Structures are given as structure tokens and as C-alpha cells.
Amino acid sequence: MRVGIIGYGTIGTDVAGFIQRGEAGEASLAAVLVRKGLTCESGPAGKSGKPLFTASFNEFMEQAPDLVVECAGHSAVAAYGERVLRTADFMVVSAGALADEDLHGRLMKTARENGHRLVVPSAAIAGLDRIAAASVGYMEEVSLITRKPPKAWIGTFVEDKLNLEGLTEPVCVFEGPARESAKLFPESVNVSAALSLAGIGFDRTTVKVFVDPGITSNRHQVVARGKFGELQLEVGNTPSAANPKTGYIVAMSVIHNLRKLSGPFMIGL
């Protein structure tokens, strides 16, 4: 399976590295779409010797990827999603972009019409397989509490509202529906979007977001109740050294999905 990557930031770099080291099953790296002006001389090269890195979307798609992994944020999902799905499957890491009902609907329509798939990896959260199975029946509640240390909020609007260095106790910076949280925290709470898509939707899934000076990892607590029974889980993700808004597990989740999609065996769907 030939894989294209949109974006070469923290997640895109990690995903490309895994693939190039042969750790993504039967997947191979076809191309990487980067921003104009970005040089990637140290990046992986194709077997033909032609650089895999390009700022041209047309040249990127000419490499004939079977699946494209988006690692460049909400705007990239909107800019490239429909165009990718006309010829390839599309894996969306920035799942919060799908809180836009119109965009989500257009992507689904394009995927159906062209026989391709829109794929959302678990990324920073666990338990989506059970949530998705439980949503077959009635669900009373799906809730998420996200806690991240102050350094994860540097460069966001939260930094303008709080003295991050001076915090001595947790502060709740958001409480409301997942649709709003996904739009408000595009880089930090994609977890709420993935949870909503797996379960009862963006408007019924409730979210609380905390800045917590007492922790060093990004933590997510999920509670769900319904006909299936009850689920309670908590995960603690090691923040990426290059970008503490995300965690190493996100790229690992992408690679896990590439192994499943390119190989003969799947588990935990």
C-alpha cells in the first residue's frame, strides 16, 4: 500500500520515519506534501531517487498513493479532503475538522461516490472500539475530561487568559458539547471529535478541559453508559518533545492503522 502524508510537522515526521524504517506493515511512503518554502533535505528519498517532498498537491497525487494521511490541521482536511477521496482513501488525524457538519457530509459523499474510505484513527484516546459497538444500542451518556499541563497550552488562546507559569491548581477552561470543544481547541482536543464520531455525536458528547499544573502527561478520562453496560477509562499520554500539544501515541496509532489496512489480519475494529 502506497501512503502519502500531508504535513511534515511533529506527527508527519514521526509517521514518515516509522514507514521508512519498515515498521508500518506493507505500507510504503509515496510522497509528502509540505508547505511552500519548507526544505526537507534530510527527509526520506524515493526508490527512484526523485524527492518525495513537494509543495504541489498535483505532483503529490501523481505519486499515486492508495491512502493519504492528514497531519497538517483542520484547514488541510477542508482544503484537500474531497480531492484526495476522488482517487484514494483519506486518514484524518485532525478529527476535530469533522465537527463541521457540511465538511463531514461532503467528505462522506465523495468517499461513497468514488469507492474510497474516510478513516479516523484512535490517536490519543482508547476504547473507541467499545464506544462504537455500544452505540449500536441506546447510550445514556458519553463524557470526556481532558487535562493537560500548562506547557501544552502555550501558543493557544488559553495562554492569553491565564498566567500559565503561575498556576498552582487545576483550572477548567471549557465545559460544553464536543462540537464546540473541537472547534475551540483544534490542536489540543481532537480526542473529543474521535469520541463523538465513534459514539453518540458531537452535540450529545460532553467535554470538560482543564489546565493542570500538577501533571506532566496529557490525560483523558472517558465515561460512557448505556444498554451495553458501563465504561470508565483513563489514559495518560507522554507529550511530544517537539510539540507538547500532542503525544507520541498519535503517530503510533496511525502506524497501527496502516499495519491493519495493509496487512491480512485485523483486530480491535
TrEMBL record:
NAD(+) binds at residues 124, 190. Residues 167-255 form the Aspartate dehydrogenase domain. It catalyses: L-aspartate + NAD(+) + H2O = oxaloacetate + NH4(+) + NADH + H(+); L-aspartate + NADP(+) + H2O = oxaloacetate + NH4(+) + NADPH + H(+). Its EC number is 1.4.1.21. Keywords: NAD, NADP, Oxidoreductase, Pyridine nucleotide biosynthesis. The active site is at residue 220. GO terms for biological process: NAD+ biosynthetic process. SUPFAM superfamilies: Glyceraldehyde-3-phosphate dehydrogenase-like, C-terminal domain (SSF55347), NAD(P)-binding Rossmann-fold domains (SSF51735). GO terms for molecular function: aspartate dehydrogenase [NAD(P)+] activity; NAD binding; NADP binding; oxidoreductase activity, acting on the CH-NH2 group of donors, NAD or NADP as acceptor. Pfam families: Asp_DH_C (PF01958), NAD_binding_3 (PF03447). Residues 7-121 form the Aspartate/homoserine dehydrogenase NAD-binding domain. Gene3D superfamilies: Dihydrodipicolinate Reductase, domain 2, NAD(P)-binding Rossmann-like Domain. Coiled coil: none annotated. Pathway: Cofactor biosynthesis; NAD(+) biosynthesis; iminoaspartate from L-aspartate (dehydrogenase route): step 1/1. It comes from the Bacteria. NCBIfam families: PRK13303.1-3. Specifically catalyzes the NAD or NADP-dependent dehydrogenation of L-aspartate to iminoaspartate. Belongs to the L-aspartate dehydrogenase family. The iminoaspartate product is unstable in aqueous solution and can decompose to oxaloacetate and ammonia. This is L-aspartate dehydrogenase. It comes from Paenibacillus apii.
